[in-house]
Design goal:
The chain is α+β, with helices and mostly antiparallel strands. The protein is built from seven helices and eleven strands. The strands form four sheets. It has a four-stranded antiparallel beta sheet, covered by helices on one side. A three-stranded mixed beta sheet has the order 1-11-2. Strands 3-10 form a two-stranded antiparallel sheet. Helix 1 crosses helix 7. The longest helix is centred in the middle third of the chain and has 21 residues. The protein is elongated, with a radius of gyration of 23 Å.
């Protein structure tokens, strides 16, 4: 489920056998959580006070999977009354669980920048328009936006993560392509950034005689934990016995398409710690990440407990 296009460098005996594919965001662990929860709930299915849907959803990394599931009717027949999601975090220790009420994970906008220059000979750049030079100036200008044009108390990430241009060391290419992401908890700040990004891309390209185009390809809303449901689980998990540490102010500038479910039904996203100096290291999307597998039992039991207890009380 949801491998990333990268080489795994963990050195583990069960590392990916497929070159350029690696489970470095923990989605294989999430799948194991849900399989474990399924087994526990199935063993006591006749005692359940309602219906549990198990959502093995692909496509989180592209922020498209949840929308596909919703369109396919996952929240219907029977109608879903509450939803729970979970994500591992290897920068946090085992025993750490977080699910603050309200906005928890950031929104995400994926953007693409296309620059049309004029190709030519690498030794005669004055005869062409170098799109790589234009791209460099656009990147520097974009990086200043979050520092100079967003208030210091508004968390914002604007990051260019991919640059593609050129085919040889002595050819000025015709085009360049950039792509990246914008993350924020503030809709008004996001709208302002999008306007300014377009002005920078088009204006900078024009300044060098090129043409710049900005396209926002994918959008994912903030993940918002329903306060009433979060409060219910806060009370319910007192009896879970895992000794969880929670931090209501903890937020992560990452996104998850679970946010689409939170727009439809009362929902809670859990983030669970799975790292320590011996068994876990690195961070999500790192080729070196190693997850502490002790979390497998806890995560599975957590999901089963939440489903069971919510149905019992409702």
């Amino acid at each position: 489920m949801d491998a990333l296009p990268m080489e795994e460098q963990s050195g583990l005996p069960f590392s990916s056998l497929n070159r350029g594919r690696a489970h470095t965001c923990g989605h294989d662990i999430h799948t194991a959580f849900l399989l474990g929860a399924a087994r526990m709930l199935k063993e006591r299915e006749k005692e359940l006070s309602g219906t549990v849907k198990l959502v093995f959803q692909a496509g989180e990394e592209t922020l498209e999977g949840a929308q596909e599931m919703i369109r396919a009717g996952i929240l219907e027949n029977p109608a879903v009354d509450a939803a729970v999601g979970i994500h591992v975090q290897p920068t946090l220790l085992p025993g750490y669980l977080n699910y603050p009420a309200g906005t928890f994970l950031a929104s995400s906008d994926t953007f693409e920048i296309r620059i049309q220059g004029k190709g030519g000979h690498g030794g005669q750049p004055h005869l062409g328009i170098d799109p790589i030079n234009v791209a460099a100036h656009i990147i520097l200008a974009l990086q200043s936006l979050q520092v100079k044009e967003v208030a210091a108390d508004i968390p914002v990430v604007l990051n260019v993560c991919q640059v593609e241009a050129g085919s040889a060391s002595n050819i000025v290419p015709d085009t360049a392509r950039l792509s990246g992401t914008v993350r924020t908890y503030d809709d008004s700040a996001c709208r302002k950034l999008k306007i300014r990004m377009r002005q920078i891309v088009e204006g900078t390209a024009q300044m060098f005689g090129a043409v710049g185009e900005l396209i926002f390809a994918e959008q994912c809303p903030c993940t918002v934990n329903d306060p009433e449901l979060a409060g219910f689980f806060s009370e319910s998990l007192r009896h879970f016995g895992a000794g969880f540490i929670t931090d209501g102010d903890y937020k992560m500038q990452v996104s998850d398409d679970f946010g689409f479910y939170t727009q439809k039904v009362p929902s809670v996203m859990f983030v669970i710690g799975c790292g320590n100096s011996e068994g876990g290291q690195g961070h999500n999307h790192s080729p070196y990440v190693i997850y502490n597998e002790e979390v497998l039992v806890t995560g599975a039991a957590l999901l089963a407990h939440c489903a069971w207890d919510w149905l019992e009380k409702h």
